[in-house]
Structures are given as C-alpha cells and as structure tokens.
Amino acid sequence: MNLSEVKKIRALARGLQVVEFLGKRSKTSLNELHLATKLPKATLLRILSTFEDHGWVYRGLGDNHYRMSVNGPRFDTNNGEENELIELSSSILIELCNNVGWPSDLAIRNLTKMKIIDSTRRQSLLTINKDVVGFCPHMLWSALGRAYLAFCPHSEREEIIISLKTSEERFDQVSLDGPWVEKLLNETRVRGYATRETGYWGHIVDYPSNVDAIAVPVIKNNKLICCISIAWASGEVTKNQIETEFFPALKAASDQLVGKITY
C-alpha cells in the first residue's frame, strides 16, 4: 500500500502541530497557540493536558505559559537552562509557599540585574504585584540581587560592580560607595541570606504597603545557578520567624533544587 493512501490520524497531527510550535519558542500562552495553530482552545487544552500527563509539556507557576519539558523532544532554543530551572523548581516552590504561607520568586542573573523567571505569587495570599515574571530587580537593592552578589565568584562580582559604577540608573549609583557595598555583602555572607532594602520597588507602584523579602543562592558544583526568595507584606513577619522558619525553609528549598540540577 502506498503511504499516501494511508488514512492520517487527525488528532496526532494536531498534537504534533502543537509540539512543533512549542519547540520553536521558549514559552507560549494558550491564546498564542490558538492564534498560531487555528485550533479551538478546548482542543488545545486537551492536547496540552495529555502532553502534561506524559511529561512532555509543563506550565509555569508565575505566568501560566506553556513550555517544552526537559523530558520532551529537544529543540534548539536559547532558553533551555532557564526553562529547565523553572520546571525543576516548580514543586519545590509550591511546597515552600505552602510551608511558610508566603510566595517565592526564582531569579537568574541578567547582566547587572536579576530576572525573575518564575513565582508562586499567584498561588499565595499576597495580593501585591502578582505579575512579577520577567521583572528585573536591581542588584544592590533587591534581596535576590544582594544574594547573587554576595555569593558569586569574586571575579564575577568585580565585573558586575564595575558595570554598575558606569550605569546612569539612580538605583545603581550606590555602587560608587565601595565601603557600604563591601559591608553589605559581608553581612549577607555571615548571615547566610540577603534582605531587601526597605521601601524598594524598582518601578512605579501604587500599593499602600511595602514588601519585605529574603533570598538565598542556589549553588551547584561551585557555580551560582540562581537565587530564591520569600516575600511578605511589611509588618506581617517577625525577626524570629525569619531566623527560625523562613531562612531554614528557604535553605532547604535551595538544597532540594541543587539536588535536581544536572548541569
């Protein structure tokens, strides 16, 4: 029998269409899939659910975008390690959020800033600034940035600080105060975690209250991979809670993620 005469499997063809589209992108929304494939959203949801069940596709916690799983087909993308981090940390971040009652952010270095790549803010009671995925906090003001700077290799830290000193952004001007920076980073290393500068937002907001946060590094084989933070509404958490509950839980989450990372 000629292959051209064989009846095609329509459902499989649709599924392959979705995989092909996902494979060419680091992430995509349901609506983007719908517009690109012309398939009904109900059909797409069934396809995506099937792929999720088989470990081929997963959905980010912070943005609800779909990505190819590390267990799925491999495609050439520029966000392989980033997407793998998001997938590997998903269950860890959810467990952390459930344990402490406040959300966490996962961030990687992005030149002289940090970049939040996933978050459990949508899964938590914290109603402030839920759409943080993609936001890039400043190095010397955010808990995530301070954790990265304090624990990254000396040569990398020097490179970042030199770049910050030439920046025209007002949040980077504090890098010119060398003694202050050194004291801040030394205190962070001794304490084991970084803190967010009180009142820091990094962008214009209209929220009535501030947010506090702490962050720790995730280090695998002496390589700083990313940082994880816990954020809460100012005044809702005591210093004792931070020391006895939040920091140990955050450190445990970091250790769990280190155990999952294979690169």
TrEMBL record:
Pfam families: HTH_IclR, IclR_C. Keywords: DNA-binding, Transcription, Transcription regulation. One of its GO terms (biological process) is negative regulation of DNA-templated transcription. GO terms for molecular function: DNA binding; DNA-binding transcription factor activity. Residues 9-70 form the HTH iclR-type domain. The keyword DNA-binding applies. The keyword Transcription regulation applies. SUPFAM superfamilies: GAF domain-like, Winged helix' DNA-binding domain. Residues 71-263 form the IclR-ED domain. This is Transcriptional regulator, IclR family.
